[in-house]
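Batch job 17 of 40 flagged for manual review because the log was empty.
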Amino acid sequence: MKRYIAILLLALAVPVAAGAQSRSFRLGKWTEIRNALLQELNRSYVDSLPVDRIERAGIDAMLAELDPYTVYIPEEENEDLEMMINKTYGGIGAVIYKPDKDGNVIINEPYAGSPAQKYGLVCGDEILAIDGVSTHGLDSRECSDRMKGKPGSKVTFKVKKLRSGEIVDIDVVRERIHLPDVEYAGMLDARTGYILQTGFTENVSQDFREAFLKLKGQGMERLVIDLRGNGGGLLQEAVNIVSLFVPRGSVVVTSKGSEGEDRTYRTTAEPLDTQIPLIVLVDGGTASSSEIVAGALQDYDRATIMGKRTYGKGLVQTIRPLPYNGALKVTTAKYYTPSGRCVQAIDYSHRAEDGSVGHIPDSLTHEFRTAGGRIVRDGGGITPDVDIPLREYSRLTYSIVLSGIAEQFALEYVRAHASIPPVDDFRLGDADYDAFVAFARDKEFDYRSSAKTLYDQMRSQLRKDGLEANMTAELDALEKAIDLDKEQFLRLKREEITPFLEEEIVVRYYFQEAGARLRLRYDDQLRQALTSPTI
């Protein structure tokens, strides 16, 4: 019997060893083939071989076969990596706008407290030259790169001032610019606090803690944590935020790697408040570390999750150094909420149009239980306790925003108005909207309705099928019924478009926090969450 067991174990061990050997052999084989292929191309290809371009394309294509998050980062993109991880860079702290290569750089949005603001740059100022180099002929990225630099270094701008039209030289000392992840914190009413968190970069948990204590001091009795559109970031920051609301020693998340490299993350600090009612707002853009926070608070029945199902990114990435100062951001583990759920989409290669998880039938998911015994499921994202539909916008409104028409109008508005009322009092009046319609009417953008877009596609297909000629009269009548001219459509959708225009305008007078405050005015999801009978 012992001899039989020994033979069986040996038989089981051989495929493992052979598999490992086979894996190493395959890797060596393809490395050898790739090197031989490049050498032969270098010798034989009819034109000069673009080695850098084809190698980068090959690396990107190879990694894309694995998952969407494993990527190569060459040395020249290290600044982008720093921005992604910490939201920091060396520069003047302003968003710029450059309509075309031949135009000037326009200061679009200076950040509050930034060097741009300190040295007197305002929205609408035009940058004619950077350190003596004309901005004409440079694209937006080239201008941005010249404006960035080591904190403490100086950059000289030749500026055409918005109000006076005077051309002056302004020396600006660059600083380390950090874009805060706690974008806004304030009281919604006498008892409800609100924290808008847009990322999970380093030390955001400390900013969150300070915002919470400030609101508590203002009489907060319940808190809304807004994680809508929050794409995540550092896992440890998610653990730190959960630790503010659950007992010390609680499991927040478990990561499981490919070779048994499992790790459990627990809260290590005493909580601030384990009793205050919490509402967490989520949507299809809530991903990664945001899902860790939402999932953990849901699993402990510590918060009511409201909104729409989250993105479904349950993969952990690690930065590994590569030769020539490059880096590999590689997926090394999956993470699991305290109840055991993995929020990763079952198939991340097939998602909804916005990238989030599409519909997954319950038959493909598994049941888990919260601390209080409620059923929750895995298979893709965090399903909210209370489903609140998103407001739907017309195709025209999306086009106005994405084409930059709203942003361009805001710049025109600033040129015509030296000041505006405080954020809570500011409203876009009839004359202002008339000015917008006149402005947008002369701009090139796709203003077709969704119905007109579908109609155009249908008519094109009918033409290809040879059926259009037999239906011309009917098609022309239908087109006339659904085809509004640009001005008609802009006036029809005023209610939809106005909030976006008001937001673009207020941030140029009162900075980014003002935009977050203004959005609250029109936030139907938040309004429904606050009046939900479940809280």
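Reviewer: the log was empty due to a logging misconfiguration, but the result itself is present. The two ends are 65 Å apart (CA to CA). Unflagging and moving on to job 18.
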